[in-house]
Amino acid sequence: MAAAAATSLNCYKGFCGQISVHTLVLLLNGARAQVYCYRLETATVRPLAITMGDSSGVGPEIILHSYKKGELPLDLIVVGDLAILERCNQILDYRVSLRRASDVADRAGDCINVLDMALLKVDDLQIGRISAKSGDAAVAYVERAVKLSLQAEVSAVVTLPINKQAARLTRPDFTGHTEHIARMCGTETYTLMLVSERLIATHVSTHVSLKTGLQQVKMPRIMDVIKLTHEALPKLRPTTRIAVAGLNPHAGEQGAFGNEDLEEIRPAVEMARRLGIDASGPIPPDTVFLEAIKGNYDAVVCMYHDQGHIPMKLLDFEGGVNVTLGLPIVRTSVDHGTAFDIAYKGIAFTASLREACNLAIKLTQSR
Prior knowledge:
CATH architecture of the largest domain: 3-Layer(aba) Sandwich
Strand order of the largest sheet: 5-6-4-3-7-14-13-8-9-12-10-11
CATH topology of the largest domain: Isopropylmalate Dehydrogenase
Number of strands: 14
Distance between the termini: 29 Å
Largest sheet: 12 strands, mixed
Order of helices and strands: HEEEHEHEEHEHHEEHHEHEHEHEEH
Number of domains: 2
Structural class: alpha/beta
């Protein structure tokens, strides 16, 4: 165990500069051990930015509870509202040390450093309810964090959930983190990847109606997502075997149930294979995920949002992580919503934030 801890600690030293261990929480997975909590001795590298999410939901308590449990694994700074975090800290009696940071470089150890945007006061807090102020502030936290990453002041961005209905009260065109961050980065070719130990899924379309999503099942777009998936997989898996899901029942049954599988998906797969990508498909969508979790594929390219999200939520709702591929920055996210019904009760799970931070480290180290 000591050797595993030393190996993992050296890995974190390589990423975070000089550190001294404050608490070690070892999670053993076979022969693997991970160090999850430490105290900074000197802040010598760029921290990771965590956005607070919608203040009416579980974002603030997940940050506090994760820190209290020793699950935040690296030098970080929270982008949000200090007043809200302090109020949440008080309600749940977490007794976590919070500190206002004047800028990204102004960080201290043994506390959560908060880049306080001062957008919300305690009186603005509406726990478990849709709030235009909270929705607008949540998007503003993301915008600040992304700008910091584009300016190379932070190493990566990890986002906590936004309530889209609340955000759209002041930003009618807002459809989600993924699309908003891509626009900020000037990126046109991107995709949403869901990652867990059991499954990896990418998506041809995401936050659009099902009707619009079906219209986006076109060979060029499918090819883009296959390529993005292929480029990302070496950072996550030892092999890069990609299954491309069909759209229609039985992948169209040779045109009996629609032509998209024959005319759009298959040509994309064939082109990918000519480029040397290990892609297969279209594979019937009712069996492709079974084949993936049996170990026959490393990732599944899905044709629309729910085709990938339903199996991921079923297999690993608490541990799944959302990653945006194609960006010039590293951005990961928890794979759950604001959970207004349980906000500020201290019962929201923290595993997804822990895994999102760990994956952000991994992706940053491999860039």
